[in-house]
Amino acid sequence: MKNYVIIGGGVASVACIEGIRQTDKSGKIYLISGEGKPTYCRPLISYYLQGITDFKKMKYRPDGFYAENNCELIFGKAEKVDAENKTVKVGNKTIKYDSLCVATGSSPFVPPFNGLDTVENKTAFMTEDDALYIEEKISSDTKVLIIGAGLIGLKCAEGLVGKVKSITVSDLATRVLSSILDDECALYMQKVLEEQGVSFMLGDSVSVFDKNKATFNSGKAVDFDLLILAVGVRANISLVKDVGGETNRGIIVNDKMQTSLPCVYSAGDCAEGYDNSISAKRVLAILPSAYQQGFTAGVNMAGGDKSLLDEFPLNAIGFFGLHALTAGAYKGEMYQEKTEKGIKRLFFDGDKLVGFILIGDVKGAGIYTSLIKNKTILTGNMKKMLEKSPSLAIFDSLTRSQKLGGVV
């Protein structure tokens, strides 16, 4: 009977368990979670702040999931991987493995701001504990400063609207969501938050903190009671890097999610795998990819044969009822529609759809995503149909039947 060890308590780890069990029903699984709790859906912590959900509803799998899958939960930090002897050290325990999956995720990146140590009330916004800390510190008189106008910072701002006195969001970038939106699309999303009372200081950065005051490079100053650091994240790669495994921004994996170390796999936000939209490797720090990578790793750890070569960036975001979906690469010829309902941009590289941005009206997103994933060749009038009225009619009868679950 094989011993499987999974390091990390996120979505990729749950998927890895399910991948293992698809092939091996009896091997022993150990899951090491440094956060000290079963897996939950981290993107929902902003909805907890809003009061829309609670921690019980945020659980990613039912309470009996681990026991039913013969998986022993170990709460603690994995300190060292011994790739030669195939062991993992956790506190005073040494766990032997036949196959190991490193799914350690990412950690907040905090720049070395001058005077940051003088700020008493500060936190990141990535975990349930962060949400609880914020909940404890805020009141209707609280002034909040958020450093970072990416998805994490903006979702935190959304969660705090109506609960605090003021919210200021700062970013060195000149637009919100700078990694996935251009100036025009970003401004569209920014206005929704501004209408709810959120203030922005973009293209500026903190020069120095002095307790509850932030002075910016522009000379502007902001007083605050709570500082939230959402500048960005970095992949947790040290467990593999420290023992000679190949790493870059993430832990390098092949299409089987294998690392350069024997019997060691990696998945989730710490892994650097294949991006189908750019035909190269990069970190895909999004939940759907974490699941697919974890499941693929699990199947192969248990002796199965599964490859993952069709993943690409796919982001679903929304603030106060305005939704946006983005996917793939923004290159080649662009088709655009702008209406009162929002913005639609489709990107074509020759005879293929390679990316899209949908803001407001997200109709057709499933069709677009399928075409990008499968690198479908657009022939005849398919492109015009795609631009004006995306539907299953664009596909041939066999493909339509397969997508609708029919039998041909």
DSSP, total strands: 26
Structural class: alpha/beta
Assign an overall shape. globular
N-to-C span: 42 Å
Percent helix among the residues? 10-25%
Helical run tally: 11
Low-confidence stretches: 400-404
What integer is the average pLDDT? 92
Radius of gyration: 23 Å
Strand content: 25-35%
Instruction: Give the biggest sheet.
Output: 5 strands, parallel
Looking at this protein, list some descriptive labels.
11 helices; five-stranded parallel β-sheet; single chain; globular; alpha/beta
Tell me about this structure.
By secondary structure, this protein is α/β, with parallel strands linked by helices. Helices cover 24% and strands 30% of the residues. The chain contains 11 helices and 26 strands. It has helices spanning 11-23, 45-50, 65-68, 128-137, 151-160, 183-194, 238-241, 287-301, 365-374, 382-388, 397-403; strands at residues 3-7, 28-33, 71-75, 78-82, 87-90, 93-96, 99-102, 106-108, 122-123, 143-147, 166-171, 198-202, 206-210, 213-216, 221-223, 226-229, 233-235, 251-252, 264-266, 271-275, 280-283, 314-319, 322-328, 333-339, 342-349, 352-359. The strands form 7 sheets. A 5-stranded parallel beta sheet has the order 3-2-1-7-19. The chain is globular and about 60 Å long. The two termini are 42 Å apart. The relative contact order is 0.13. Residues 400-404 have low confidence and may be disordered.
